[in-house]
């Protein structure tokens, strides 16, 4: 989002206050059509009724002054009816606002999350986008409603103001002008401070995220063990407090400024009111005004002034809400290359065949052509000029030191990232040209940091292929292939057991058991002919890992497989081993060839073999 201009002038700010109003109202209208219309009608009623009440008040006083019992009673009843109607309207508005707020919050949060699904991995790793997302989510349920309430409030105040203005005008045009002028300074101050408050929150958005993070580390089960054993709780808490205190001081300064200025400037309005009131009272004493008129003008003046002030101070609020909405809308408009975010346009048949890659005569396999990759904001290349061809059906193992670039290669292969340079072809077709869904269907992956869904075992496995979540045969095949049968056998409600500790009656699994579930999830993708295991077996003991890979190899027969592992019993099973270092392939061949070569691989192998002795 573009940072707000540090010193926008009042007019710019005024325009900025309404920039996103139409789009927000449209959102509202789409979310809750009937409720919006009703709210608008009630808003108009709430604007007009107080005028009636004021007029009835005047009529009562005049009737009393004329000693008319009947007229007095009649007007009291009229006022009662109007006040009752006003109360009803206000209740109705409150109800509608809370309903609309809930509906709008749900829809907007839904849209934010839907957009998050289409963001690419790199977006989640960009602090700016992440801040935008966090800001959008944090206030999604309150801001849009506040904006709508404020807009309607302005309409209401305008109508009320026009009514009181008309009533007052009968007495003195000068008074109307005084009413407006006396409210102006306070309102301008409000607009300015509102802008300051927004910018304060925006500036500290990264710090606010840090505050949330500290809170999360301090109060979350995954971190509790280390936090206790290393005794880092106190250090983190102190940091949390220090940051929290800084926020508090900033907020306090602003609040004090707001209250002080507000009070000082409202005195001006009050002074103007009493000056006019005195002049009206003197007029009444002289007999120029009836007592009823005095009451009516007094009320009109005060209420009108309030309405005017509330319009102007609403502008300050509107400015803030608009800045929030602009953050939301620009987040929603983040361009993504991901096919998932592109509008789904039906491809003509010929083009479809192209992207599905089933044309005869094309090479079968995966080709890296001069592929380089640099993470956003990094100087160093994580992969440098990689050329590689893996024919369909080959099993490839990637080995190399930590940070060598193995996972990066997998991320590019699965199109989580696009190469900075060069291209990757699957069956002769650039990955970028593939329909993303078709591509993802062909690839089954388990990463080292696979997810542990705090959901049922059925969902944990079934998520591997959501269209087949209810397919009992497929689930059971996947569980067998992943080696998770024993895990399932120990679960109290079988597939319907809630896993994890977050929710009631959840069964927590061991690291190795979770891994087997994750493997079973990957095996749900029966159509996938490219299988990737990026060290998902690290929590398994060496024997179990070996067993998993033996089974994996058998099951993967005829498919292309990529395995990242630091364990040689696993690595040596592959048809082809790639030794990666500094983002390049420095050696390749079968286990026997590489050992014979007596290079890096042979050294790494000897070292590990020693460890096992
Ligand atoms: N999201 C990221 N943003 C920036 N740099 C990254 C990111 N992920 C990895 N890197 C960097 O890219 C390089 C390659 O990392 P990669 O994860 O591919 O290594 P790896 O070979 O899989 O290591 P390991 O065996 O530890 O898993 C490293 O220098 C790492 O610091």
Automatic annotation (TrEMBL):
<feature type="transmembrane region" description="Helical">
    <location>
        <begin position="171"/>
        <end position="191"/>
    </location>
</feature>
<dbReference type="InterPro" id="IPR039421">
    <property type="entry name" value="Type_1_exporter"/>
</dbReference>
<keyword id="KW-0813">Transport</keyword>
<feature type="transmembrane region" description="Helical">
    <location>
        <begin position="34"/>
        <end position="57"/>
    </location>
</feature>
<dbReference type="InterPro" id="IPR027417">
    <property type="entry name" value="P-loop_NTPase"/>
</dbReference>
<dbReference type="GO" id="GO:0016887">
    <property type="term" value="F:ATP hydrolysis activity"/>
</dbReference>
<keyword id="KW-0812">Transmembrane</keyword>
<keyword id="KW-0547">Nucleotide-binding</keyword>
<dbReference type="InterPro" id="IPR036640">
    <property type="entry name" value="ABC1_TM_sf"/>
</dbReference>
<keyword id="KW-0067">ATP-binding</keyword>
<dbReference type="GO" id="GO:0005886">
    <property type="term" value="C:plasma membrane"/>
</dbReference>
<feature type="domain" description="ABC transmembrane type-1">
    <location>
        <begin position="37"/>
        <end position="320"/>
    </location>
</feature>
<dbReference type="InterPro" id="IPR011527">
    <property type="entry name" value="ABC1_TM_dom"/>
</dbReference>
<keyword id="KW-0472">Membrane</keyword>
<protein>
    <submittedName>
        <fullName>ABC transporter ATP-binding protein</fullName>
    </submittedName>
</protein>
<dbReference type="InterPro" id="IPR017871">
    <property type="entry name" value="ABC_transporter-like_CS"/>
</dbReference>
<keyword id="KW-1133">Transmembrane helix</keyword>
<feature type="domain" description="ABC transporter">
    <location>
        <begin position="366"/>
        <end position="607"/>
    </location>
</feature>
<feature type="transmembrane region" description="Helical">
    <location>
        <begin position="145"/>
        <end position="165"/>
    </location>
</feature>
<keyword id="KW-1003">Cell membrane</keyword>
<dbReference type="GO" id="GO:0005524">
    <property type="term" value="F:ATP binding"/>
</dbReference>
<dbReference type="GO" id="GO:0015421">
    <property type="term" value="F:ABC-type oligopeptide transporter activity"/>
</dbReference>
<dbReference type="InterPro" id="IPR003439">
    <property type="entry name" value="ABC_transporter-like_ATP-bd"/>
</dbReference>
<dbReference type="InterPro" id="IPR003593">
    <property type="entry name" value="AAA+_ATPase"/>
</dbReference>
<dbReference type="Pfam" id="PF00005">
    <property type="entry name" value="ABC_tran"/>
</dbReference>
């Amino acid at each position: 989002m573009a940072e707000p201009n540090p010193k926008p002038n009042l007019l710019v700010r005024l325009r900025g206050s309404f920039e996103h109003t139409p789009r927000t109202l449209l959102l509202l209208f789409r979310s809750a059509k009937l409720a919006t219309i009703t709210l608008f009608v009630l808003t108009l009623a709430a604007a007009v009724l107080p005028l009636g009440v004021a007029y009835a008040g005047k009529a009562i006083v005049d009737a009393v002054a004329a000693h008319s019992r009947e007229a007095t009673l009649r007007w009291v009843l009229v006022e009662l009816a109007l006040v009752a109607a006003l109360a009803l309207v206000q209740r109705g508005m409150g109800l509608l606002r809370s309903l609309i707020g809930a509906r709008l919050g749900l829809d907007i949060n839904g849209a934010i999350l839907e957009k998050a699904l289409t963001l690419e991995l790199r977006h989640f790793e960009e602090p700016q986008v992440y801040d935008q997302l966090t800001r959008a989510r944090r206030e999604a349920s309150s801001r849009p409603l506040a904006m709508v309430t404020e807009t309607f409030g302005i309409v209401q105040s305008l109508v009320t103001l026009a009514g009181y203005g008309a009533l007052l005008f009968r007495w003195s045009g000068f008074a109307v002008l005084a009413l407006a002028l006396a409210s102006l300074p306070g309102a301008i101050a409000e607009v300015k401070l509102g802008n300051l408050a927004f910018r304060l929150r925006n500036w500290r958005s990264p710090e606010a995220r840090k505050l949330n993070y500290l809170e999360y580390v301090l109060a979350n089960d995954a971190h509790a063990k280390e936090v206790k054993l290393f005794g880092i709780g106190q250090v983190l808490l102190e940091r949390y407090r220090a940051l929290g205190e800084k926020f508090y001081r900033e907020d306090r300064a602003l609040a004090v400024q707001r209250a002080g200025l507000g009070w000082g400037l409202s005195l001006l309005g009050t002074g103007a009111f009493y000056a006019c009131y005195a002049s009206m009272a003197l007029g009444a004493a002289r007999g120029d005004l009836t007592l009823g008129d005095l009451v009516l003008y007094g009320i009109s003046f005060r209420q009108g002034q309030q309405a005017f002030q509330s319009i102007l101070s609403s502008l300050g609020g509107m400015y803030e809400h608009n800045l929030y909405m602009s953050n939301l809308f620009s987040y929603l408009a983040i361009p993504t290359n991901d096919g998932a975010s592109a509008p789904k346009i039906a491809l003509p048949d010929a083009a479809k065949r192209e992207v599905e890659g089933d044309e005869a005569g094309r090479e079968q396999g995966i080709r890296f052509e001069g592929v380089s990759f640099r993470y956003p904001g990094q100087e160093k290349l994580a992969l440098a000029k990689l050329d590689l061809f893996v024919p369909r059906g080959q099993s490839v193992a990637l080995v190399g030191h930590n940070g060598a670039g193995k996972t990066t290669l997998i991320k590019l292969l699965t199109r989580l990232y696009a190469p900075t340079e060069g291209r990757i072809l699957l069956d002769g077709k650039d990955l970028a040209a593939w329909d993303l869904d078709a591509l993802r269907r062909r690839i089954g992956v388990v990463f080292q940091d696979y997810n542990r869904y705090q959901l049922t075992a059925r969902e944990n496995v079934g998520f591997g292929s959501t269209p087949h979540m209810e397919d009992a045969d497929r689930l059971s095949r996947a569980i067998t292939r992943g080696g998770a049968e024993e895990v399932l056998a120990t679960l109290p409600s079988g597939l319907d057991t809630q896993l994890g500790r977050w929710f009631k009656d959840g069964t927590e699994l061991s690291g190795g058991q979770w891994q087997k579930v994750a493997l079973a999830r990957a095996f749900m993708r029966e159509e996938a002919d490219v299988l990737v295991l990026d060290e998902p077996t690290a929590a398994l003991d060496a024997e179990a890992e070996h067993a998993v890979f033996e089974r994996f190899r058998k099951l993967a027969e005829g498919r292309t497989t990529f395995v990242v592992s630091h364990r040689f019993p696993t690595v040596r099973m592959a048809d082809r081993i790639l030794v990666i270092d500094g983002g390049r392939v420095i050696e390749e061949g079968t286990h026997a060839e590489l050992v014979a070569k007596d290079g890096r691989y042979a050294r790494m192998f000897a070292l590990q073999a020693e460890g096992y002795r």
